[in-house]
Amino acid sequence: MEIIDAHAHLFPAGFAGRRDGRSGTEILPGGRGRKHDGEVAAIMPARFEDTSFPAETLLGEMDAAGVSRAVLMCNSLTDLEENLRAVN
Fold first, then answer.
1. Phi, psi at 74, each rounded to 5°
2. Which residue, 68, 52, 70, is CA-closest to 7?
3. How far, in Å, CA of 17 to CA of 66, rounded?
């Protein structure tokens, strides 16, 4: 049976420190984000200390989990170009 990740995001290096204009979430190190109300929540596993998740990392995680395909989702902090480079 083929396993497909139906919702994956790429986050380039240097992602921590940015603020999402739509939600107001500030991206923090350690895979966390601070929401507009001050609450801090995990946005990715803490082992991604620099809060980046490039295509190479996604592929490694997919291989480790036996995932053969992924649907890449854009977000308001990364651009479509990042996803396009990943699939080419």
1. -85, 160
2. 70
3. 32
For the CA atoms of 79, 14, 49, 52, the dihedral, rounded to the nearest 10 degrees, stands at: 20
Q: Is the Cβ–Cβ distance between 61 and 8 less than 8 Å?
A: no
pTM for this model (two decimals) = 0.77
pLDDT band at 7 (very low <50, low <70, confident <90, very high): very high
Over residues 37-78, the pLDDT tens digits come to 999 999 888 788 777 888 899 999 999 999 999 999 887 767
Closest CA to 74 of 6, 11, 27: 11
Angle at CA of residue 12, ends 80 and 24, nearest 5°: 80
Element (H, E) at 35: none
Ramachandran quadrant class, 23 (left: phi over 0; alpha: psi -120 to 50; beta: rest): alpha
